[in-house]
């Protein structure tokens, strides 16, 4: 059986990666989204085990000790991580998986799973990014400055990614991510080449 592909989609907070991933999943039924785990409190409208697995810090730290994360990080005082078990099981079953994670986490995954496909979502400008973050209504001047500083640092890591998509017009960005996923799904690996050649030889 051919293994599934791991698509890692990340970018600065406010770049729109969450919205893009949701739309891609609506279209691509053969892809599953890994649900991250976090120690932060749920925001309004967020549902446990749908948007995140919300846990306390003790539970999170226990899973770290057990080697249960593909990646984890402390972001703005809260822990975030990608539980390993489901992701690896899906990939072994030939199911493609999307990770929507921050840049720090994506670079960790790249070290342990370099065969993943890494897609960076960019805002059209820092000013637009600031407006998107401000529209959430949950940022102080201090946290806004910190997020923008982090965004600039994250953008400097873009050379570690396979693709970049600028999210200026949402529909265009969604279609570009879909196109990347479709192209990657059509790529041949050595096992598939051998199987295809063997099958056609048998039909002669």
Automatic annotation (TrEMBL):
The first-level EC class reads transferase
The record's principal subcellular location, in a coarse class, is cytoplasm
Could you tell me what this protein is called? Guanylate kinase
Q: PANTHER family under this entry? A: GUANYLATE KINASE, GUANYLATE KINASE-RELATED
Q: Which residue range or ranges hold the Guanylate kinase-like domain?
A: 4-182
Ranges in a coiled coil? none
- What EC number(s) would the UniProt record show? 2.7.4.8
